[in-house]
Structures are given as structure tokens and as C-alpha cells.
What we know:
By secondary structure, the protein is of the alpha+beta class. It folds into 2 domains: 3-286, 4-hydroxybutyryl-coa dehydratase, domain 1, CATH 1.10.3140.10; 290-473, Butyryl-CoA Dehydrogenase, subunit A, domain 3, CATH 1.20.140. Helix content is 47%, strand content 14%. The chain contains 18 helices and 16 strands. It has helices at 13-19, 43-57, 62-65, 84-100, 110-120, 130-143, 160-165, 250-253, 280-286, 290-320, 326-351, 365-390, 407-416, 424-438, 441-451, 457-467, 470-482, 492-496; strands spanning 3-4, 7-8, 26-28, 31-33, 66-69, 72-75, 147-150, 174-179, 182-189, 200-203, 219-223, 229-233, 258-268, 272-274, 354-355, 361-362. Strands 4-3-12-13-9-8 form a 6-stranded mixed beta sheet, with no helix packed on it. A hairpin with a 5-residue loop joins strand 15 (354-355) and strand 16. Helix 4 (84-100) crosses helix 10 (290-320). The longest helix has 31 residues, at 290-320.
Amino acid sequence: MLVRKGLIMLRTGAEYLESLRDGRVIYIGSEKVVDVTTHPAFRNAARSFAAIYDMKRAPENRDTFTFEEDGERYSAYYLRAKTKEDLVKRMKLHRAIARMSHGLLGRSPDHVAGFVAGMAANPSVFGRYADNLLAYYRHLRKTDGYAVYAVIPPQAARNPEYYEKQNLPVPTLRVVREDDSGVVISGMKMLATGAVFANEIWIGNLIPLAPNQLAESITCAVPVNAKGLTLWTRKPFERHAPVEFENPLAHRFDETDSMVMCDEVKVPWERVFVHNDAVLAREIYIKTPAHCYGNHQSNVRFHEKLRLLVGLASRVTQASGADQVPAVRETLGRLAALEASLGGMIAGQIQDAEEWPAGYQTFNRRYMYAALNWCTEGHSAIVDCIRELCGGGVFQMPADISVMQDKGLREAFEGYWQTPQIGAVARMKLFKVAWDLIGSEFAGRHAQYEKFYAGASFIVRNHNFREAPWDDFHAAVDELMASYGYPGERPVADAAN
């Protein structure tokens, strides 16, 4: 039991790993995975997630990474912030978790937890399902649960008429029937990043639905091992990275992405949060602090990744002495300025926090969405910059570190591959990190991932459009134009007298 009288004992990493052995159904191609904690495609990443639980549970982190409510103690990412200090507490835990994976585990346990906590700060938005939402929030908080989400329809679902004409099932997840005990759902949702390591999946809709898509509007939560639910994963990179030295990031931090397949999955009414309401299905994220909480975590997570990228850029240039070249130092200075810019946007979200909803403090939404857009636009350009700084160095290395096992090859490698600034093995290790971050298949996934982390770029920009104070912007223009006229025209101020 996690619960002890008078307080919550947060999960240990071992308890988390045990929770994954629950009969979930996962496929890698045609291979059925029996246990993600031991399978060579997932076991190291599973332990990376377990380390998060051990870190936040450590006695020295108790006051920093947990909060107390009603005499019990919970993970700080379930905190509904009422003060700026509460926002700082949330941010500190997000940063500590992101730093453990250098920002490479995007959907870590604090991500969807933030969405649910944000919803619980304004549950009235859910109407008759408000009590369900609050009960689910308390359930996750009490069990220290790890939830991920699947909130996008499959791309093939854009043409439902095709499936209807062909007498085929429409792939989009929908309610197929309901009864007194709950609803039954079938279909697909994407893209459940981290689902193979999670306990529960939040199924919903971040993309607007047509008014007639009532069956598709279902928003609910299901356990990963629910009967009829299967996860179809993309190619796992960890399985092809058995030696940590060769692929130091893919070896430990491949969180995987999965399609969620539901075949007659029963969802009890108490786990239903939106039903038969195509508009509300999306509005629950923006009419509560949910989207802001969740994407503040995204900003912090990216910032930690950016710190790794900038540090790598500097180390790569130091390894060859290129850091002494003025043009290279200018490039490094630009990267450092970009990192500081994002740091400032994150700090500003707390400095200029909003009193919204009543009784709560929320990270500044405008600054959060601006940072989200900054990350979406900036990642590829930053990675390209580091590619240029690496030059051909990433290709000069031997195929693998096995050269150190042969005396003659080892002597040649250590002699010829060293530079005045760094030894051969350390230089190879550095470029292995660089390649796994900018050039490997693992890196390619991250390049695509960052472009669509919060949806397509136009979606992110529409969030910025929605939150912009257009009346204030227009007033600045109108006031300026009202302050002068054409030659001979009476000034506006005089005309008013």
C-alpha cells in the first residue's frame, strides 16, 4: 500500500516497475511484449522512469517536490496553484524531472498530471461530469499514477466517407454503444507517447470536432491493461542500442510512441468526463488551466534539452580548438542568447502569473504559448547549427569502441585520434553523444517530435492569436493616429473642447 495514516508515501521506483506487470497488450510489429520491464526494447527506459519516482520520493526532496493537503502528501505536479510560490514549486519539480533525461523524456509522469490538475482547478467546466473529473484527479494524486494521453485522431480518419462507402469501420475512436454501467469505445487514437510505461491513458480531443461528431467527442480515462486495448508501438530504438557507449541517449531515453487500438473497450461512467458534446471536448483544455499547466512543463522540459544542446555545441568546438575562432565564438554566443531567452520566457510565466480561475494562480498563458511557438520554430535551426559545428568529426570515428580491445588498434586509435584538447576515447564519446542527439534515428524522431510536440505549427500560432490582447494593440495604433491630423485640421484634443 502507498497510503499510510496521515500521509501519502510516494511510490518507489520498484513499486512503479511492478505496476507495469499488469497484463497490458503491446505489439512491436507481430511480436507481443510480455513484460516491458525486462524486454530489451523497453527495460532501460522503464528504469529511467522509475528513477524519477525514486528522485522525488527521496527524503531530502520531500519539502521541495511534494505538497500537503488534508493531512496527506502528494507529488507537486498535482498541486493546484493558489500562489506564485505554488507555481514555483510545480516548476522546480518539472525541471528536476526534465534534467534527469536532459529533456528527452517529453511525456514524463508530470505532463498529463499537469493537465488533470489544471482541469481540477476549474471543474465546473465539465458540467454534469465535474464530480467524475475531481474523483479522477484525486485517484491519480493518491496513487501517484502515471497517465499519458491519446488526443489526436488517426490521419486516415480525415475522410470518413471513404470508409462508409467501402463498408469498413471508421478508424477514429468513438462510442459504439452505452448502457447503465458505462460506454463502449472502439477505434484508434494517436499518439500515445510513453503509453507502454504508463498506468492509464487519457483519451480525448485536442483538435476541434465537427458539431455532428458526437460519438467521437468522448473524453475518458482507461487503464493501459483494459480488456480490448492494445498498443502498437513504432520501431523501438533502445533494442538497437544495446551498448550505452555507442548510443547513450537511445539506450536509456526512448519513451516510444504508440497507436492506441480499442476494440469494444468498456469505460465505466465514473471515468467519463465529456460525452456527446463536440465543442466541450476541446474547450476543457483552454477553459481550465490544463493546457497551460501541461505546456509549462513542455517549456521547462525543452529548456533542459536546450541546455544540453548548447553545452554540446561548446564542447564539440573545444575538442578541436575551434572555440578560439571568432566566428565560432559568435555562434556559441548566439546559442547562449537563445537559451537565456527561453529561460526568461519561463521565468516570466511566474513573474506575470494570472489570477485565473477565481482563487487560483496560473502561469501567464501568453508567455507560455509564445515559448511553445519559440520551441516549435527553433529546434531544427539550433540542431542544424550544431551539425555545422560538428562538421565531419562525427564520421571520423571508428565504427565502435571495440577498437580498444585490440592492442595494436588501441595504440593507433589513442595516438592518431587524440587532439591537443582531448583524448581519443573522450573525443569519441563526445561525438557519440552528438550523433545520438542530432543525427541518429533516435535524433530524427526528436526532430519530428519537436515540430509537432504541441500540434502542428498553425495550431500553436492560433493559441497565440487567441490569447493576444488585440484591443490593447489596436488602441496603441488608434491613439497614435488620433494624436495628429492633416495640415490645417484641428488637433483632436482641441476639437473636443
